[in-house]
Amino acid sequence: MGRKSRRRGILRIDPVGIFGVFLLIMIWQALTLALPPSSLPTPSSVVARIGRDFIRAEELSFYGLADTGLLNSMIYTATNVMIAVALGSLVGTIAGFVTARFHNVRAILDPIVMTMGTIPILVLAPFFLIWFGVERMSAVLLVVLYVAVILYIFAQRAADNLDPVYEEYAYTLGASSKRIVWDILIPGTVPQVLGGIRIALAGAWGLEAIAELLGAQYGIGKIIQVLAGATDVQGIFAALIVLGLVAVISDGLAALVFAHVAAWSAAARPGGN
Amino acid sequence: MRLENGIAIKASQLSQSFRRADGQLVDALSSVNFEVLKGQFVCLIGPSGCGKTTLLQIIAGLLLPSSGILEVGNQVVTRPSPERGMVFQKDSVFPWMRVINNVEYGLACRGVGSGERRAIAEHYLERVGLAHVARAWPRELSGGMLKRVAVATVFANGASVLLLDEPFGALDYVTKRHLHNVLLTLWAETGRNKPRTVLFVTHDVDEALILADRILVFHTGRIVDDLALVAPRPRTTDTLLMPQMVQNKHLLLAHLGLETKQAGTGATSSIVRAAND
Amino acid sequence: MTEVRAFFRRHGVSIIVLGVMAAIWQILSLLYTTEAVPGEPMIPGWQVVFTRTLISLSDYWQGGLGVPSVAEGAPPSYTAALLAIVSNSLDTMVRLYLGLLIGGLVGTFLGLAVSWSKWSRRTVELPLQFIRTLPLLAMVPLFQLWFGIYFAGKVAFVAYGVGVIFFAGVVNAVKNVPQVYIDNARTQGANRVQLYLTIILPSIFPELRATILLSLGTAWGAVLGAEYLGAQSGLGYIIVYSEAFAYLDRMFVVALLFVFYASISYAIFNRLSLKLLQWMPRVGRVIVVG
């Protein structure tokens, strides 16, 4: 509520916020005094565990998951997420643009996507596991679908909201339709579309992880599933924190890149929610 | 010329500095001194970013000065009070309350009974010509009507000091002139038993000449001129053509950098006067 | 009659598209007749659903109310199937709405409390950002280890997911309240409590509307995820239990039910919030993907 609280810089981290993170860790530490380590491991033991499991996790081979560690499981999960977000964004954005400008297509696609939009995509996971097996395909398709629906909505809304005056102005200057797409439509909607990709990316990590939990051979979700079977809370914490850190870092990187791409736009501030 | 207790607002060595987003320190006000008499209608004029709004926020109690003292009615201002009503530059009418509830909001905050405050609110809505939209949502009103609501609100609250921050800046010419009349009428009539002091920020020279008893000219955080306008009210188009008004207009335009300073002899002398302050 | 016609005018295209989707499903089931396991088609057509699937759901009736369960040796019946649907739907919905209520209240309260001062808000912003980015659905096993795989575990998980969204949503919404409204109220003599009740709460509501819709989507996803990964009842439980036997037809029916409930919850919320927000200029429907 402060008068001057709204200044923003490129990814400037509030020192008070660092204190907040420190406070959070202290609260966690304090809670471990009241709870047994089997429910809540100490922060230091989790950090130690991450170090121990990073390249190759001994415990996991006892539980039947040989020769893997947090690093290569995370790489597997991250690869799936990146492929899915890229593919889903492409499909969703194109469909969103097309429907924003061609009303016949919109009349057909809108009800389908809006239905998809209101259901938890997760409901499809068990179907995909039977249809496409427990390989990479099922999880990636699930995330592609999720991302595509979000981007469809964001791209369509952005194209709808783009003031027609820009396109009309470009036509009066003699631009071709192709040029208008590249010079007006895409740059004009880029902040909202990138904002949509950031939202989709944030949700994608959890969806990918639970898809792996439900049935997969590799990935951080698979590790969590195996550790949960062994009620190894410390290991789960280690895996969750690695996944969380990767999610936070990827979000920060995305924000940075997007701020650069859409520097002219007020919507493209990093740190803006 | 009047008694000491005739002073409504007194600023002594008032300064305010901000740290800009790039880290540089900017002086919005530097050592400003002035006094405003009770019941006076004062216009603050100056180019954008010269500290007028900052001054108004300090008087309202929304902002504490970096240094110096601001007194209203012999009391140092440290926080907002319903004694000092404000009409904001941006639309400040609460969109989630109906028009009538907006006008009676301040009274409700102070626990005035519902019957009484409803009567006061209806009276002032009537006076600004909005009795017919009392039950409407603000979104159904035009920009000019919203400003009328804000004016009604500030009068309904019964403040003795009214602070208006470029209230009519975004309005069209006709609406603006109508609102000037509404404002002046309300100011004049309540002024009899309880004088209302008005500080009106603007950068419209004609607006200042029509409204003010006195014009304070701001430039880069300082008062650079202080003009008294003795022209009779109500002021008409003819009033504005009186020689002394025309001279004042030249002077103000020169301060705003729109005319060269040689336009009138008064300009030079007033700058000398400001420098001697 | 006019109401029926108005309904069709408004929803006509959607109804046609849904019909076409149902038809495409049927065509796919006829074209692609591969079976997951013998007797269980990969794409169960409507003839399968309406003949054997509905009655087979009586497997998930656990007995009581004078209707014996299949496990007790009773033959499958439509009564038992209906009871199975109703009781499992209720289980899922109670978990969902209770979690939503607890999470929403706790999250809103914490968000408002933290927004009381600039310093407390700044302290929580960064850690909150981190907590919010932690992938929720990956945390199901953790909540099961903490709160068990029964009722409390599911409610706690939904409440946590919803609570984090509300907490962050409220903090952000309070931060975005236009300063001019706060200044205006203060110059009119509003005190801190009046400021909260008459200015901050109503002006954060439009932004909270998006938060509530987002949390609704999250809640449906969370309850489903929690039921997938360990439960003794509920729609998600039926889906994964059926998956183990490749009963795609049962999964299909229960998934449709689930989608139906979720859609209804959105429709009800949209109605309610539009009513509450009639003061707002141009309120559009907000679509959130969950």
Structure description:
The complex is a heterotrimer of chains A (273), B (277) and C (290). Chain A has helices at 15-34, 43-53, 58-62, 70-101, 103-118, 125-132, 136-161, 164-172, 177-214, 220-229, 233-261. By secondary structure, chain A is mainly alpha-helical. By secondary structure, chain B is of the alpha/beta class. A six-stranded mixed β-sheet of chain B has the order 6-7-8-3-9-10, with helices on both faces. A four-stranded antiparallel β-sheet of chain B has the order 2-1-4-5, with helices on one face. Chain B is globular and about 55 Å long. Chain C is an all-alpha fold and 290 residues long. Chain C has a domain at 85-276: MetI-like fold. Chain C has helices at residues 2-31, 46-56, 78-114, 118-133, 140-147, 151-175, 179-187, 192-228, 235-244, 248-276; strands spanning 35-37, 40-41. In chain C, strands 1-2 form a two-stranded antiparallel ribbon. In chain C, strand 1 and strand 2 (40-41) form a beta hairpin. In chain C, helix 9 (235-244) packs antiparallel against helix 10. Classes of the chains: A mainly alpha (273), B alpha/beta (277), C mainly alpha (290). Chains A and C meet through helix 1, helix 5, helix 6, helix 7 and helix 9 of A and helix 1, helix 4, helix 5, helix 6 and helix 8 of C.
